[in-house]
Amino acid sequence: MKKPPRLQGRLDPVFDRLGQSPHKERLADYLALLKPLDDQGRYRPFHELHYRWPSGLDSNLCWALVKKARTAQYSSLLPLGEPLQWGNFVLTPQAQKAISTVDRQATTAALEFMTSQIGEHAHFSYLLNDLIEDEAISSSQLEGAATTTRVAKDMLRRKRLPRTPDERMVIGNYRMMNFAWEQRHEPMSVGLILAMHQVGVEGIDDARYSPGLFRNNDDVVVQDGAGQTVYTPPAAKGLTGRLQTLSKWINQSHNNLEQKDYLHPLIKGIALHFALGYEHPFRDGNGRVARALFYWFMFKNDFSAFRYIAISVLLRSAPVKYGRSYLNTESDDLDLTYFIDYQCSVVMRAVSGFAAAYRKSLANADQFDRWLITSGFFHRLTEKQRAVFQVAKSGMAKEFTAGNVKEHLVCSYNTASSTLNGLVELNVFEKRKMGREWVFFLRAAV
After folding, report:
1. Phi and psi at residue 332, to the nearest 5°
2. What is the pLDDT of residue 187?
3. Is residue 291 domain-shared with residue 394, that is, in the same domain?
4. Contact by Cβ (8 Å): 133, 152
5. What is each CA distance from 74 to 8, 70, 95, 117, 334, in whole angstroms?
6. Distance, CA of 190 to CA of 194 (rounded, Å)
């Protein structure tokens, strides 16, 4: 990746240079570049822009013009590194669309509205519990866990002990996501960061991860797929102090509409995600903790629907772009716009996917109820039996136990068992003894 030229102290005389030969003969071409975005509205880094400029222009001068336009729109964001440097960003159209999307579809109020629209369709809890597992699994897969999604979900639902380090990674991420939810009312602190790491990685390979401990030397680097070092984090010396400074910034209120330095929680949460990756405070597990802290911050700011929105599913599908968004920021004077813009595109798709799943679930519920009435089953089933029956018919889950029905439908074990055995008596379910428990599943002919 071609790094941008260093321009500190060289932006002010940029127009003087334009008045000199041979640049003044191409003045119109140069001035057309005096804007933060390209012609398609994208915030591109130098290595993507430099070969798109008209032939014959001085690439350093072109970049100076782009940077001048960007710095004019910069907002200071958060303190990073040693010596302390403030990261900046430009609020792009992509970020504005993402903010609008989460405000409309990811707040606690929006989630409560969705639930009220579902009404008595208790099957929706199965959808939510299915989605809540996705971030833990995909975040592990993003870090290299080879466990398949199907096997990981089966492990979480059966609460069976992990058999491999990869499965232990999934369990750790699942605990960490739950911990992020449970700690949403706590302030940011060095202790919270350490506890998040310990909950997430303890028991995987303690010698490798050092659970709940910051690195104490400078031998931690980020490498690409070819084993080349692409990023060296700030020194371990002073790490605790820098994270205390970060915590103080996170705990400051920025979302009061009367404030001059107003900052939407989505942008601030993404900045926190970046800061943990930038500092790389642990020997391993930094990415998982960074993503979990993003969720913690969104939960803290009343965006409860993020419990069911898995950004890592999308990050996993394009890990190179994810990594490059970090590197573009690090190599361009901590311009966080690259990272924020990419994360906003991911968040927007993830939130839209969650909303689409809800709409599909609502439509399927109505369609299923009409089928139940036509088939004569509707009045023969209890509400909980209808919920389990619909989940089985939709394929959302194929096997059921009294334990997982109890958990999903929030009822007693006896009620869950009675629900499942009632479906067997109606000849719509079968059951089979597997180990010490009975497992129920839809009959093939239904």
Report:
1. -120, 55
2. 97
3. no
4. yes
5. 15, 6, 14, 42, 11
6. 6
